Amino acid sequence: MKSPSDESKDGLTVTPPKKWAAGVPAVVHALEYSLQQTSPRKTAVDLLTMNQVDGTDCPGCAWADPAPGHRNRNEYCENGAKHINDEATGKRVTEDFFRAHPVSDLAGRSDMWLNQQGRLTRPMVKRPDSDHYEPISWHDALNLLAEELRALDTPDEAVFYTSGRVSNEAAFVLQLFARAFGTNNLPDCSNMCHESSGYALHETLGTGKGTVSLNDLHHADLIFVVGQNPGTNHPRQLSALEEAKLNGARVIAVNTLPEAGLLRFKNPQKARGLVGQGVEIADRFLHIRAGGDLALFQGLNRLLLEAEDERPGQVLDHDFIGANTSGFEEFSEHARQISWDDVITATGLTLEEIEAVGADVLRSERVIVCWAMGVTQHKHGVPTIREIVNFLMLRGNLGRAGAGACPVRGHSNVQGDRTMGVWEQMPDAFLDALQREFGFDPPRAHGLDSVNAIRAMGEGRIKVFLGVAGNFVRAAPDSTVTEEAMRTCRLTAHISTKLNRSHTVCGRTALILPTLGRTERDVQAGGEQFVTVENSMSEVHTSRGRLKPASKLLLSEVAILCRLARRTLDGRVDLPWQEFETDYGAIRDRIARIVPGLHDLNRRVTRPGGIRLPNPVNEGVFPTAVGKALFTRNAWEMPEVPEGHLLLQTLRSHDQWNTVPYTANDRYRGIHGSRRVVLVNPEDLAELGLSAGQQVDLVGVWRDAAERRAEGFEVVAYPTSRGSAAAYYPETQVLVPLDSVADISNQPTSKAVLVRLERTV
Ligand SMILES: Nc1nc2c(c(=O)[nH]1)N[C@H]1C(S)=C(S)[C@@H](COP(=O)(O)OP(=O)(O)OC[C@H]3O[C@@H](n4cnc5c(=O)[nH]c(N)nc54)[C@H](O)[C@@H]3O)O[C@H]1N2
Ligand SMILES: Nc1nc2c(c(=O)[nH]1)N[C@H]1C(S)=C(S)[C@@H](COP(=O)(O)OP(=O)(O)OC[C@H]3O[C@@H](n4cnc5c(=O)[nH]c(N)nc54)[C@H](O)[C@@H]3O)O[C@H]1N2
Ligand SMILES: [Mo]
């Protein structure tokens, strides 16, 4: 596939990767981006309210805030600042813009260009057979959408996609609307993100959420950071790791790349960080082969079992295992049989390296494992996380202070959206509660997840697609297949803040429904509103926008969804949409009656710090089918990489937010001026007969034999682990086969795409 014109293609310069993250340059870079986007005065105003009590929750990521009273005056990071200012930009996309740029023109623009045009300002419609978006009133836009929905043969011909940016209130209203309408087709970005974590944790522990708090991290003895690039994607996690280290913790980084943030951290919030050498983050760096993490944890588990044989009663936590778990004997028998040769081949590590980590574990009373996309977006994502749970359970590292499982979430409210019922397969208990509260029968058949929604569209089974935040067309794998599927819809509609590819690859009719961003004041008939969100550590708290809305014509997400629901369900299901829109407190009253742990939400959530949702594991309860935590036996196959091929991971640069690149630079990795680069280990380059600076096409290899090609990449020699390569998402989305999904979770394997590099000059 030809890439849309990308202004960033010229002038690649490569410098050595950085050995530390954050510090003064980070602050300066954020400010530079801020100043390009907004006025300095506004920047200062926005940022000082970020992540403060009664301030705006940073939409940058889901990392938790320190307890009230322990927050920095600047409780945000470089990338949070960029993200905020990207939303607070002074640039506007107007009617004139759409007059000047037909859809066919927009379709040829890069993701970066589309985003840089500024904030969307008014509802727009693209009519069938027209190449232009033209203005439409809210009244007509919502009627058009409602009429299309009402005209469907079955509610299952509609799909309602959400991205984790959406507040609890909007998410709750959306799922209520979809279910009252009659479908569970509620795919979300989580299907492509931490779905593997959800499945593995649910199955083994009976709850899909992480078990640790920030305080636990601060007081752990040993922290694993696996398949994560916190210096870029969760910079405030580095502050937590720094604090843990100052308290004596050791950190083990497991990654296919030596990421700057894993090596050394200069804390921009502290004088020491501004002038000094910073704190070394990783005590050990395991340069693992792609997809080797399951084998690593299995190896560690075997070492722990053998240590117990040598020192019976001193290594494993028999009390925990006996009282709380099931399946230990079967697991133990399996783990003892794994072959070290296989472990060493799969991980690319030496036995000594693994034994050294084993010794660290034995010395540590409190162990935490953090992980993100380098684990979940692999074929064996689910079994890998199950094996991490085995590892934690062996020494009772669950349900006590300083220990536990820490899936590090991406979008700022992705966890909250699930708590609110945005999931295509919510359990019956939730649906029963909806039924009791609202008196309609929610559909029980599971709906479509993201991958299955694309399949269904491709088969012509979906007529209406509504995207609530996000950029589905670019977030989803297999661009050619996904784009073709999207174009089969009669109507596609997106509730968005900024222009993106999903507006340009659309159904016969398409709607752009512009909305308030989280930084903006939200005033409804009942007065000024706040919303609530839930972070990666299950803390639910308020977020209040302060800025003047980007346009007078913007409606809030809640208002759009309530008005749409009213029009669509009129005469079918009678629900208090008007009341919800007037005062979001009315929505929270209902949430409080439906979601366990959120009782009395309206009163409790406004207390500084909000509410921490209880995690049963921390109360010694494991709500699995058998009422105990499960040890599991996890088999794996080595990924088959034929000679001359590499396993490509598609990842984020330092200057992008998911599908939205901000600049063509990736400072910590030393890449400047181009995103069309492929990072390959120098020894692999030599074997492939390639060298740095050459131009190549990335050619995907998959069993369906379809040609998947990403053109015009420059080779960069980089210390990726042997046999793997790295390139940026979403440019490489075209290479990820729709059917290449993680076992069980159906999550695209965006970190393991088989490719060959084809020289073009
Ligand atoms: N600034 C910024 N912040 C963000 C985002 C953003 O785009 N920009 N996105 C947000 C979202 S939605 C998410 S989900 C998170 C994503 O946060 P991350 O998971 O940190 O994101 P990725 O860039 O996908 O990086 C994956 C990491 O896993 C490593 N890796 C790849 N394969 C393997 C493997 O097989 N084993 C191991 N051990 N490591 C591997 C890669 O080298 C890389 O360091 O960040 C959130 N925060
Ligand atoms: N190849 C590959 N694919 C991946 C990944 C990968 O690592 N590799 N990562 C996956 C992951 S982890 C995720 S989470 C998904 C991300 O998938 P999405 O969440 O769908 O994508 P985003 O890029 O976050 O969406 C950006 C758009 O959201 C809209 N937006 C921003 N803020 C708001 C708001 O406040 N309200 C509303 N209504 N709209 C808003 C803007 O219009 C913007 O253009 O992508 C997945 N896809
Ligand atoms: Mo994500």
UniProtKB/TrEMBL annotation:
Molecular-function annotations in GO: 4 iron, 4 sulfur cluster binding; formate dehydrogenase (NAD+) activity; molybdenum ion binding; molybdopterin cofactor binding
GO terms for cellular component: membrane
Molybdopterin oxidoreductase domain boundaries: 119-520
CDD domains: MopB_CT_ydeP (cd02787), MopB_ydeP (cd02767)
Annotated keywords: 4Fe-4S, Iron, Iron-sulfur, Metal-binding, Molybdenum, Oxidoreductase
Gene3D superfamilies xrefs: 2.40.40.20, 3.40.50.740, Dimethylsulfoxide Reductase, domain 2
Boundaries of every Molybdopterin dinucleotide-binding domain copy: 646-752
Known cofactor(s): Mo-bis(molybdopterin guanine dinucleotide); [4Fe-4S] cluster
Parts forming coiled coils: none
Domain of life: Bacteria
InterPro entries membership: Asp_de-COase-like_dom_sf, MopB_CT_YdeP, MoPterin_dinucl-bd_dom, Mopterin_OxRdtase, Mopterin_OxRdtse_a_bac, Prok_molybdopt-oxidoreductase, YdeP_MopB
Signal peptide as annotated in the record: none
Family as reported in the entry's similarity comment: Belongs to the prokaryotic molybdopterin-containing oxidoreductase family.
Protein name: CbbBc protein
Species of origin: Streptomyces sp. gb1(2016)
